[in-house]
Write a structure and sequence with these properties.
- Helix content is 36%, strand content 27%.
- By secondary structure, the chain is an alpha+beta fold.
- It has three domains: 12-277, Bira Bifunctional Protein, Domain 2 (BirA Bifunctional Protein, domain 2); 294-386, Rossmann fold (3-Layer(aba) Sandwich); 405-475, C-terminal domain of ProRS (Translation Initiation Factor IF3, 2-Layer Sandwich), CATH 3.30.110.30.
- The strands form five sheets. It has an eleven-stranded mixed beta sheet with strand order 3-7-8-14-11-10-9-22-23-21-20, sandwiched between helices. A five-stranded mixed beta sheet has the order 16-15-17-18-19, sandwiched between helices.
- Helix 1 (2-9) runs parallel beside helix 11 (332-341).
Length: 478
């Protein structure tokens, strides 16, 4: 047990230094290794397995809503990128450029995709001619590069993995419906599969995606009260279609421009899982995306029959969950700490006395509860237990968000709350960008979103006192 305790002590307490705690978890749980290129990370097998489970679930959800996967080139010609002015201006500071092919300078420099709107637009302009070609519902799984100045594993790296959906529609209404539909897909996934409660809403114009008419977001609260933008959807209207001449002939023979959406979620969501559920002993993984849902630990495995019984259980449980077994010569205490660190939802302990009683011990990662379960009941009990763990993780995160959400009616109130408390602040806003900028300057908070399902709490703007137009969630964010 001593080795296990030592391992846990190497994690900085989140109360002492949350940023260091996060880095310790990422490293000790073997999610990421730093590469020799600054700002680029190596996603280790355990971290990538989490991403694979995220990808699998989301990909099924996308296909159920009629989307198809496609793959676009890595490089974008500068002339193509420049076709949509607002878009390129938004990304210009983050673009990485390729200027040589081998030893020869290129006639036109190429950017490594920071996102693929223009590539999709060029393709759509070639394949859409008639209303019969619409809608086009495409999604891409890939990596992108954005030359961030400050990087942190998963949260902000210069290359990251993601999916980006890009769709084309015959009408503004169809595009808006798609934008909101995919926001709901993301919200369902994050809440039901990742057990993280989110706030759905619209971004202010200041915070919207470059080139979009409107951006929508799901915002999640982390342990330290900061917000993490977990996914976004964008309605581009017909601005890209006009820039790229993406037009079609409608049923009346008239030429119309298409209406476009895009939407995405990245490996940043793994950072959200860590910071929403983790504790001072390591990761706490939601069962649906955990690489291993059950880890079998043989106790006194040198004794006759223990390893045999443990492997019998492994063969049985493979039919109902993702399960592993640790047969190494490490002590049981070390193994207990190791798989707590890795966030495995259920630890199954089996030893000689358990075998005599035809039982095992199940230990929940979320609350440390120990359960003595008959070996005959495992196939029935474990799925129920995994579901209970997901619900408990969600409820804990939801209660934390409730306790760390405050209301401000005046500028002095929002300044006082922001300087003394961690969390979200609900406050009314007039819609003027100058007030949004001022709140960042004087209270160090940014607008997170204008929520769909909540009404204005005060008729006057929290900043200037003029008539309020929206309720806004304000806060500090990653």
């Amino acid at each position: 047990m001593a080795d296990g305790k030592k391992q846990v002590k190497e994690i900085t307490s989140m109360e002492t230094d949350f940023a260091k705690w996060y880095t310790d978890i990422v490293k000790k749980a073997d999610l990421v290794e730093y590469s020799n290129v600054k700002g680029f990370m190596i996603v280790r097998p355990y971290g990538y397995a989490i991403w694979e489970n995220i990808q699998r679930i989301l990909d099924n959800m996308f296909k159920e809503t009629g989307h198809e996967n496609i793959y676009m080139p890595l490089l974008i010609p500068e002339s193509l990128l420049n076709k949509e002015k607002a878009h390129v201006e938004g990304f210009a500071p983050e673009v990485a450029w390729v200027t040589h092919g081998g030893n020869e300078p290129l006639q036109e420099k190429l950017c490594i995709r920071p996102t693929s709107e223009v590539l999709f637009c060029e393709h759509y302009s070639n394949i859409i001619q008639s209303y019969r070609d619409l809608p086009k519902l495409y999604n891409q799984w890939c990596s992108v590069v954005r030359w961030e100045k400050t990087t942190r594993p998963f949260l902000r790296s210069r290359e990251f993995l993601w999916q980006e959906g890009h769709t084309m529609h015959a009408s503004a209404l169809d595009a808006q419906n798609e934008t909101l539909r995919m926001l709901n897909v993301y919200a369902d996934f994050v809440e039901n599969s990742l057990a993280i409660p989110v706030i759905k809403g619209r971004k202010t114009d200041k915070e919207k995606f470059a080139g979009a008419n409107a951006t929508y977001t799901i915002e999640a609260m982390m342990h330290d009260g900061k917000a993490l933008q977990s996914a976004t959807t964008h309605n581009f209207g017909d601005s890209f279609a006009k820039a790229f001449d993406i037009s079609f002939t409608d049923k009346n023979g008239e030429i119309k421009f298409c209406h476009q959406t895009s939407w995405g979620m990245s490996t940043r969501i793994i950072g959200a899982i860590i910071m929403a559920h983790g504790d001072d002993n390591g990761l706490v993984l939601p069962p649906e995306v955990a690489p291993l849902q059950v880890m079998i630990i043989p106790v006194a495995q040198h004794k006759e029959g223990v390893l045999q019984k443990a492997n019998e259980l492994l063969a049985r449980l493979k039919k109902i969950c993702r399960v592993g077994i640790d047969e190494t010569d490490q002590s049981p205490g070390w193994k207990f700490s190791q798989y707590e660190m890795k966030g495995v939802p259920i630890r199954l302990e089996i030893g000689p006395k358990d075998i005599e009683k035809n039982q095992c011990v199940l230990v929940r990662r979320d609350n440390k509860e120990k359960l003595f379960i008959s070996l005959d009941e495992l196939e029935q009990k474990i799925p129920v237990l995994l579901d209970e763990i997901t619900k408990n993780l969600y409820n804990k995160a939801f209660q934390r968000r409730q306790q760390m959400t405050y209301t401000a009616k005046t500028l002095e109130e929002i300044k006082e709350i922001a300087s003394t408390k961690e969390g979200f602040i609900k406050a009314s806003w007039c819609g003027n960008e100058q007030c949004e900028i001022k709140l960042k300057e004087v209270a160090d908070v940014s607008s997170r979103c204008m929520p769909f399902d909540e009404k204005i709490i005060e008729n006057n703007c929290v900043c200037c006192g003029k008539e309020a137009k929206s309720l806004v969630y304000w806060g500090k964010a990653y």
